[in-house]
Design goal:
35% helix; two-stranded antiparallel sheet; alpha/beta; single chain; binds zinc ion; TIM Barrel; eight-stranded parallel beta barrel; globular; 307 residues
Length: 307
Amino acid sequence: MLWGLFWLARVALRFAANATDKAQRRGLVCPPFGNTPMHIGPTQFTTPFRLGSTSYVYAADLLTNVERLAGEGHVDDIELVLFELENGPSNLPDERTVRAMAEVASAHRVSFTAHLPLDLRYDTSDTHPSLRLAQRVIELTRPLQPLAYVFHLDGAGIEHADWMNQALQAVETALRWVPAPDYLALENLENYDPLYLEPIYAAFPIGRALDIGHVWKQGRLFNSVKEYGGFERLRVVHLHGCATGSDGKREDHLSLSCVAPAQLEATLRALAGFTGVLTLEVFGEDDFFASRTALLQTYNRLSTCPT
Ligand SMILES: [Zn+2]
């Protein structure tokens, strides 16, 4: 049960690769793109970005995780990793749970980002399961006022000419459900070149979610945000360790403690000026707290000795 939850949450992320008033009082409103920072007010850790975790740090349900992460002051933001597997388990909260999560988070000035469960795809109509589930999740989480809805595009057939047309239609459909286009943040994946996504960013004023763990998993170095569209539309950054396992396969969503200090330092230098949400996209107490320590120690070292 304990590790089952973490496993399912990992599966939800990985197989996602396959398969106003109140807010203003909380100081969490997202202004439109431009030079305005995405959030207003100080963060828990005096970082310019909001430091976040997934919703599965503790081997417990969503509400317990929110109560502990927010109530004990561990994070600025919580990424809701939601899933509903076909003929399988679902962790979509009911309305009462959502209201309770909103109250706890609001009391502790903690924000949310939401990860849409399935990789979006448009079939011959807008009734593809990925879109139907995306709509349900966006409606269900509305009381939580997520700062971003992070989503993947289904990469099957990405090299074929007709892929782009359905991808554009999928994004256009999802845009109907969000408060403004920049709330939809399209994330790069490890199983296709991020350059395939550039026409989508060019077609719509949507946000960007940059997963640096996925960049590393592709065997690339990450030294500059500019290569990934720059800061202007960057709403969310995902960070997690990546290493080669004993079977020779690259694994991600690991603790940042397995990332070389120089690599982490170069990453934080490249992110200087980022004021969105930085999510440590790992699961379990050990991996989260070790990652947070590695990140904050590096950040504090760079802040006091920037060159
Ligand atoms: Zn991610």
